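Database export, one record per block. Field names are fixed; values are copied verbatim from the stored entry.
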Amino acid sequence: MNEQIKERILALLDQHRIMTIATLRPDGWPQATTVGYVSEGLTLYFLCGLDSQKANNLARDDRVSLTIDHDTSDLMAITGLSMAAHAQPVTDRTEAEKVLRMLPLKYPDQISLPMPMPSPEEVRIFRVTPIVISVLDYSKGFGHTDLFTC
């Protein structure tokens, strides 16, 4: 992956706060859910409930697909990312605490949280490591994507 496209991917990750992530249910059907995320380089992190369907799905199969994008009124201004990735639970307390400190930073306009930030024991934190990244950029042509293997 060249440096220019990596910078484009990192910029898109920094510009957004939510993603749609699809996990696999026990019956094989995908389950897509919107979650908040933070990123460090190309690695993404998200939280979910301890016994959520996402957490249970990922305990069986760590493969995920995700999208990060935004709404636009200009068809040719559509940009975004889609990824095939693996999502692993964060078990290291230091890494988990770092992620929990990063999350409020994605919301600089939020004066205070409506509740205390959960502790690492109260949530599942997943580290998402991309395998394939597709960069969508309609300004380069209708439906234009650049595909990269990590």
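Remark 1: The mean pLDDT is 92.
Remark 2: The longest strand covers residues 124-137.
End of record.
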